[in-house]
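Hi L.,

You mentioned the student needs an example of a multi-chain input paired with its predicted structure. This one should do, with 1412 residues in total across all chains.
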Amino acid sequence: MIDPAWVSGLAAILFIIGLWGAFSRKNAIVVLMCIELMLNAVNLQFVAAATHWGDVTGWVYAVFAIAIAAAEVAIGLAIFLSMYGQHETISLDEVNLLRN
Amino acid sequence: MSGSEIIDYAILIPLFPFLAFPVILFLGRIFNGTPTWVKNVKEGGIIALTVMGASLIMALLVIKEHMNKVGAADVFTWFESSWWESSGEITTKVFGFGIYIDHLTVMLLFVAAFLCFLINIFSIGYMNTDSINDNRNHRFYAEFVLFCSGMLGMVLADSFLWLFIFWELMGLCSYLLIGFYYERPSAAYAAKKAFLTTRVGDVFLVIGLVMLWNMFDGHLDYAYVFDPENIARVDQGELQIALGMMFIGAVGKSAQFPLHVWLPDAMEGPTPVSALIHAATMVNAGLYIVARMFPFFMEAEIGALSTLAIVIAIIGGITAVMAALIAFVQMDLKKVLAYSTMSQLAYIFTGLGSALWLANNGYDDIAAFAMGASLFHLFNHAMAKGMLFMASGSVIHEIHHAHHEVAHHGHDDHDGDHHDDHHDDHHDDHFDAQSMENMGGLASRLPITATAMFVGSMSIIGIPLIGGFWSKEGIIASAWKVALKEPIFFLPATLILIGAGMTGFYMSRMWFMTFAGKPKTEVAEHVHEQTPWIPIPLVVLTFMTLGAIVFAGMHAGHWLGDFESGHYTSFFDGIGYEMSHVFLNPDLFLLILTYVAIGLSLVIGPTFAMALYGGSLDEGQKAKPWMQWAINLSARVNNKSKFDNTAWANSSLADSLHKRLHFDEIYDAAIMKIVVGFANLSAIFDSKFIDGFIKTIESTSQEASRRLRALTTGSARDYIMMTALGTLVIFLLLWGVT
Amino acid sequence: MLPAACDGPGMNCVEVFSTDFWQAFAPEAILIIGLLLLFIIPNLGNSKFRIPLTKTHVPWFFGGKRVKATGSPALPGMLATATLFTALGMMVIESIDGKMDTTTVVSGGIIIIKMDNFSRFFEILFLAAVLLASMASLDRIPAHTFHGKKSLEEMYDNRRQADFYILMLTTAIGMCIVALAQDLFVLFVGLELASLATYVLVGFHKETKSGAESGVKYFIVGSVASGVGLYGLSLLYLEFGTLQLTEIAANWVDSSILGTIALGLVLVGFGFKVSAAPFHFAAPDAYAGANSPVAGVLATASKAMGMIGLIRVLLIIALPESGAQESAIWLYALGTLSVITMTWGNVAALGSTNPKRMLAYSSVAHAGYMLAALTAVGAWKWGEVEAPSDYAEAIVAAVLFHLFVLVAFKLGAFLVLGLLEMEGGASRLSALSGLARRDPLIGTAMFIFMLALAGVPPLAGFVSKFLVVAGIVSNSVGELWVTTESVSFSDIHWVWWLALAMFINSAISVFYYLRIGVVMFLDVPEEGRRKPLPYGASIRMAIWICLVATVLLGLSGDTLIRMCYRAAESLNLA
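Structure written out for the whole complex:
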């Protein structure tokens, strides 16, 4: 068995990559992917912790987190569709009518 | 000490007029213009008359009640309030209003109530027959009764605080009444000037009152303040300063130098106002407050308050001569009387100054004599001056009517009330109804008025046996007596002696220009007496002035000054005593003095006047016998004299006098420089600093808001970056703790 | 088997999905049933379902040509409003006199949810806000039921009635779960449920550019934040092996590094929901692009949801024991955050010319005030006061009261803006011009809402702000005034300065609240808005309810304050 500590480390790295990508990418879909990356990191972390503590509820949390992530993606894509319909672009830099 | 029944109701004396004020105002606004209101109630005049009559009767009853007493003041307190004590005493009477009656109160109460009543009668005749006043007389009568309540209240009050309160009430009414014709810029200006000038005096009065309050442990009521023990405990130097401050207030109110500038302009008000306020009552307020200071001078340390007394006398002396000089060149009838008032009040101040000096230096008997003379002169002057103003009002009134008859070919009386229907008076021509240049020869045409003015002038001049003579001699004598003891008093004493002669001149000049000689204009030829209301008070006061001899016989002078004495029971004894005392005085110095004064005022002054302005009447005109001899005398003197005053009339002194000795110009310049300059500075400060401060706050906050909101760039990436930044900040702060 | 928390009077432990459970869970169950009905009823039709490989058509009533009775586009709104109203009514009746039982729902040793005064209080708050928004939406997104030609927009509106109300109910359910949760993950699930529905609601008007844009921004930033928060939860799980509130609270030590990191990350997640300072950037855009009732829900109920999270994490988990000498570890972080938040919100609102953005910044400021209050709780002079829990309860009760009355006037203000949106938009300040003349009642109501937001007595806003400030001050002074002769600034905890900052910020805020009043009363209505306001019975009734609540709660909010106190007590802070 892999030492859960490594998995936690991986999760941390994934999380940081995801966070960095979220604020540095212009493409909305890519940002969504980075958010997914963060949520996957969370999943990994839950799993690692569950293994560490030997507690089955951790696995339950992980499954729930997958479901939530999926729902979020669905909604996100729908919202991006409507943005594209209106603004004809999915570049987050060009969508800034609302400001100040 | 509560008195008997009458005194209990003394509060009604000022209360009646005070309550009548809103009643007249209110009813006037409702019923304005309705015939009953105009004809029967005389637009509130009858209401005012009733009320003043009631006050007069009450006052007489109170006086009668008090006359039987020989003794100190009656004090009756109406309400006490006890919220001022910081030492825990409950009997503090600082805000209580009480009645204080002594001889001084009695005299002024009589003067005020009597004159208010008579002038009320006069006003009904004067104001209601002049159509310029139509439909606004209710305002006049309302302000009139308010003023009367102020005067009566001031006279009856038992503390300096209430004196001050009513003092201010009178100042307000004076402003309202002088500016009665407020649509005229000159009247508005005059009202403002009067108010502001007396205000300057009032500032000092308040300072003096506060100092007194401080010195006397929070008491301003006479009972406490006049107590010899309390006076002895107080710092005498501070007392002198406090009383000096109050004196400055009196100077403002009584139009003495240097705060005298408002009185001539105040003639802009209707004549009854001039009669009441500026001759008979309000200007006496200043005298009253100085007279009230008498116990201070009596009980204080010997010589501690002498300086103040000297100052009072000197101011009196200066004003007397100055006012008389300016009166020499006046052409306006009322202005002559105004300056005469100023001058006579100055006399009284001099007399008071002498009395106070004597009291302070231990000469109690002479002090009482001097005090009595001053107060008696106040009485005589009030009666005479009131009458003179009313008479002048009568003259002006009739000249006015005559002018309209002449100018508009008369007889446009369409509503049958025997008065011309004036519809647009005072606007068309520049005929000055008040100028003596338009008069002359009126003695035969206005007999009652002429008599009144004749008697009044004689009283003011001090013709022996009539009116002011008895008191003026007393003042001059007192002043010289003090001068013998205190050399500096020679100045005021000499000044009033010279002033006596000057008084003789200008009063005679006034009478002869108006009533003797030939009419100078066609208008003057058409003058005749009209309404009945006007002559009544004139007649009454004429007899009053003539009857001053009776009062003198009753030792009014002594009685007024000395609170302990009674009065002689035998009238003729009293007369005999007085006559001998005046004309055959055992003291040689005083004897010479008396005759010099009589000579100046009776002989020299009027002779010069007759020489210049005398003259016989028109062909076929005859005045009443008691005046005719004077007119004949004046005609003879005029014909015989070669006295030519053109050099005097064109001199630079005359020019200065025309400009009232430049006081107005000096004051104007000072105000422009100081007050206006300061006002401009304040305006700059306000707009630059205070407004600027607010504007800076506004612009800074708007700018800050704009910059802060600019951080919300609208780009989602930036938002996420900020989120990450925030995470970092939170970590740092969390770690900073551990 | 049952956890220790189940013992005691008035405590009720039920197994999940047992009969007792359904009794206690009834209001929420009604919400869920309503949601399901909203799915089903509008779609009842005559469609048939063909069994595969046969030719038999079984009537499957879902879909096809809609049944006349249930196909009315006005139905979803009515249904949703009725459901919310019923659930709210049941909760109010149950808990208003404070005699409700605390029901803990357990499943195999783990406490999932607990119905106590605290959770019921918040559920009432959420349902009230969503109910008022629903009522307003009946007019804001009206169902056009007349027969005849409809415009494109009207058809749009009819088609998406059900969608809107489903989303509203989902938000309500999610928020109720957040209130009830006793396990951090359950809380998070509820949070996500509500958030996802809210993202869609913000971007609901996809026919407008601003609607679409605001939805995107809110979604992205919100997802990042909740991702961060979830990661923090996972770290917490790693540290403690459980996400049960009571267990973590029992095992918390200030010195654990992982715990502190986790705390920071969780703060970010909840900070976004509460719109605290560096996380609030998407809020003004979201409020501006969403329609006003939804923005109102965001401003009041969503914020309260975030507050629950903060209270649970900061006050229950991470608070030192009473008697300890240090203050909470998160004290400085939260203090700084609160000052930045309130200042930023107020200064930004000063110059804002869009009323919805201005209200957004103002709710940022209000969040700052509440964060200050929470900071004060963490500043107890532990060990120096007799009954520290009294002080803590006072502040928490004040925060709860403030959250509740915000529903009354902030939601009310948004509803008035909604009324203006119905006739053509409320994005410029000039939309409010002359409102008082056009419709005096609405103008006055708006003005009263503004006054309440500013904290003018005797309205509810004053009472709530006063309670908060009083709580902070008394917490910072503690019982010094009993023990020492004179108290100087060096003796008082620095949290006192937060109260001063709150005071000054309130003063600054009066400007932009009153500016609305000036515009309403003194300006001339702009072009195209000279007619009276649209009729809208339902939205006007909602505004009226808010107005009455604002005034009444200010004059005599005793019942509510007592409820808040009971709620705070049931937290068992110390």
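You could point out the following to them. The interface with chain C takes residues 701-702, 704-706, 708-709, 711-712, 714, 716, 718-720, 722-723, 725-727, 729-731, 733-738 of chain B (CB under 8 Å). DSSP finds 32 helices and two strands in chain B.

Best wishes,
N.
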